[in-house]
Write a structure and sequence with these properties.
mainly alpha
Length: 422
Amino acid sequence: MMIWSYVGVLLVLFVGFRFLRALGHRIPIIELILLIAGLQWIIGAYIEYRTPFQHLKYYMYVNESTYMGYVVPAYALFLVVVLLISKRAPKINLVFSQLATYSKFGVFILFIGIIFDLGYNIVPDSLKFLAFLLSSFKYVGIILLFFSETKWHRYLFYFGILFLTSRALMSGFFHDLIIWSVFFYMFYALKIKPSFKFNVIVIIIGFIMSTLIQVVKSDYRTMIWSGYDGSYTTLFIDILNKRLSGGLSESSDQQEELNVRLNQGWIISAIMDYTPRNQPFADGATIKEAVLASAFPRFLYENKKIAGGVENFEKFTGFELEENTSMGMSLVGEGYANFGIIKGILFMGFWGFVIGRYWIFISKSCYRNPLIIVFLPLIFFQVIKAETELVVILNHLVKATILVFGFLWFTNKVLRINFKND
C-alpha cells in the first residue's frame, strides 16, 4: 500500500514544521529526535525507491509497501506517544534569560572540555567514554559564553569556535561539529528570536553546507591521512572548488553515496529481508543486553556489549563490516529484529513513552537548575541519532545524565564553585 509512503512523508513534514516553529521559543529536542528519524527512516527511503541509481550493496532489500507498512506505523506510534507524554513536561522557557549569569562557569567548563579533548588519546581505554563526555564540555562552555555580556568572554567564545573548527579539519571528522552546530542554533535562536522564514533559510543553508562537506570529505581525509602538512583550511577549500567546478556530484557513485548517507532505510530493509528467513527473531535479547549494559559498568558485567553496532548489524543483516567500520541497526530496525512487525511497532510506542517520561524528568530538573539546560545537547547527543541502536543510546543517556548531575553537585557542594557571576 503506497498510502503508507504518503502518510510517512506528511508526518515528517508535520514534525519539520513543529521544529521550525519551536526555534526561538524553546529547545526542541523532542522534535529534533523525530525529525532526524523521519528523514533517515522515511524520506531517505522514499527517495531511494524513486531514484534511478542503485548501489551494489546499499539499496532497499524489500519492496516499498512492505517497508513502509512497518516503518511508518512504527514511526507514527513513536511520534504520537512521545508528543503526548512530553506535553506534560513543565514549561522552562523563562529561565533562558538567566544563562548570561552563568558565563563565568562557562569559562571553567570550556577549559575542562579542551583539556580532555587534547588529552583523549592518552586516557586509558577503560576511561575513554568518560573522557569523551568530558571533552564535550567544550561545546557546553561555548554555548554559555555566547550568552555572556562580558567582552573578554566574547573573545573566548570566538576562540572556542576556532578551536572546534580546527580540530575537525585536523582530524577529518565533521560529524560532531555538524550535530553541535544544530544544537547551537537552537540556543542562538533563543537569543535573536528569528522569524519562521529565517529558520527555513538557515536550515536550507545548513543542509547545503553538510552536503558539501559530505562531497569533500572522502578526498580530504585521503590527503590529510597520507601525511599532508600544509594548511588544512586551504586544502579543504581547494578540494571544494574542484568539486564545485565539476558539479556537486561528478559521477553516479557520488550521488549514490549521498543517498546512502541520508537513507537509513537500506539497513532496516536488509534486516527485514534477512530476519527471520536466515536469523531468528531475537525476542528481546538485544533489549535486555542494552538495559544491562547501561545499568552496570564493564567490571560488573563481563558480557557487556561493545558500543558501535557491529555485532548486531552483522547478525541481523548478514553483512560483514570491514575493520574499524561500525553501523547501527537503528531503533526501528532493532524493534523488527527482536519482535517482527506488530510487536516492533509496539516497541517503538514503548520507546516513545520512555523518552517522554525522561523529558518530563529533565524538564523538572531544568526548572530547578537552569544550568542543566545547556547540558541537554550532551545528554541527548546519541538519542537524536536515527542510526544508533538501543545499547548505544541507553548507555550514553544514563552515563551522561549521571555525569552532568554528579558534576554540577560536586562543583557546587564540594568545590564550592559559585555557578553565577559575582
